[in-house]
Design a protein that fits this description.
By secondary structure, this protein is an alpha/beta fold. The protein has one domain (3-212): TIM Barrel (Alpha-Beta Barrel). 45% of the residues lie in helices and 17% in strands. The protein has ten helices and nine strands. The chain has helices spanning 3-16, 30-43, 57-67, 82-90, 102-110, 122-130, 146-154, 173-177, 193-197, 201-212, and strands at residues 21-25, 47-51, 72-76, 94-96, 115-116, 118-119, 135-138, 161-165, 182-187. Helix 3 (57-67) links the parallel strand 2 (47-51) and strand 3. It binds glyceraldehyde-3-phosphate and pyruvic acid. Pathway: Carbohydrate acid metabolism; 2-dehydro-3-deoxy-D-gluconate degradation; D-glyceraldehyde 3-phosphate and pyruvate from 2-dehydro-3-deoxy-D-gluconate: step 2/2. This is 2-dehydro-3-deoxy-phosphogluconate aldolase. GO terms for molecular function: 2-dehydro-3-deoxy-phosphogluconate aldolase activity. Belongs to the KHG/KDPG aldolase family.
């Protein structure tokens, strides 16, 4: 593994150890970005991944990076090599994607952004490990096989730690966190669309508080 990847992976590990849950966020209106991130941080969730799934996502990252203290701000849903430069320029401090591809991994090698790539099978996880990725996102966690599936990878692939994401809920989080190869989970349940649309930041802070206390 190159020293550069090892250093970036150490940064990924630090992000995943900030708390039990990474908030995965879809920002549809730019005006929601800052109060949403502030509500998550106020509730104790310090790792926030803004997915590049909406036209305002990069501006949302820019606004949060400029205005919100105490947040580890990631860009999610990176699908193309150019997304690394765009996410870094906007102020993201880590990058996430649902899977990976040779082109994305080459772009990650060339980028300063720490990268959390997705894997859903033993082969994908092993292929990423060959390129230096000890920290990976298990996605989509529940449809891909759930807790039992990931548990069965722990013994044969002891060097890989996962952030389980995709279909994970607050009530299921303790079972994921109990696995030896899970360091955190990710989820969008902290930011339901109706609460965001209504600007109900206290309710989102309460969901974040509940998530931050999960063990
Ligand atoms: O990171 C990806 C997902 O969109 C989060 O999954 P979820 O909405 O099932 O929590
Ligand atoms: C699903 C996922 O990993 C992402 O949107 O980044």
């Amino acid at each position: 593994m190159s020293d550069a990847i090892a250093g970036k992976q150490a940064s990924v590990e630090r992000v995943l150890r900030l708390g039990p849950v990474v908030a995965v966020v879809v920002v549809r209106e730019l005006a929601h970005a800052v109060p949403l991130a502030r509500a998550l941080v106020a509730g104790g969730v310090k790792a926030v991944e803004v997915t590049l799934r909406t036209p305002v996502a990069l501006d949302a990252i820019r606004a949060i990076a400029a205005e919100v203290e105490g947040v580890a701000l990631g860009a999610g849903t990176l699908l193309a090599p150019r997304d690394f430069d765009a996410a870094l320029a906007a102020g993201a401090t880590f990058a996430v994607s649902p899977g990976s591809s040779p082109l994305l991994l080459d772009a990650a090698d060339d980028s300063a952004l720490p990268y959390l790539p997705g894997a859903a099978t033993a082969t994908e996880a092993m292929t990423l490990a060959e390129r230096g990725y000890r920290w990976q996102k298990f996605f989509p966690a529940v449809p891909a096989g759930g807790v039992e599936y990931l548990k069965s990878l722990a013994s044969p692939l002891p060097g890989i730690g996962f952030c389980a994401t995709g279909g994970v809920s607050a009530s299921a989080t303790p079972a994921w966190l109990a696995l030896p190869n899970v360091v955190a989970v990710g989820g969008s349940w902290l930011t339901p669309h109706d609460l965001v649309a209504a600007g109900n930041w206290p309710a989102i802070a309460a969901l974040a508080r509940e998530a931050a206390a999960l063990r």
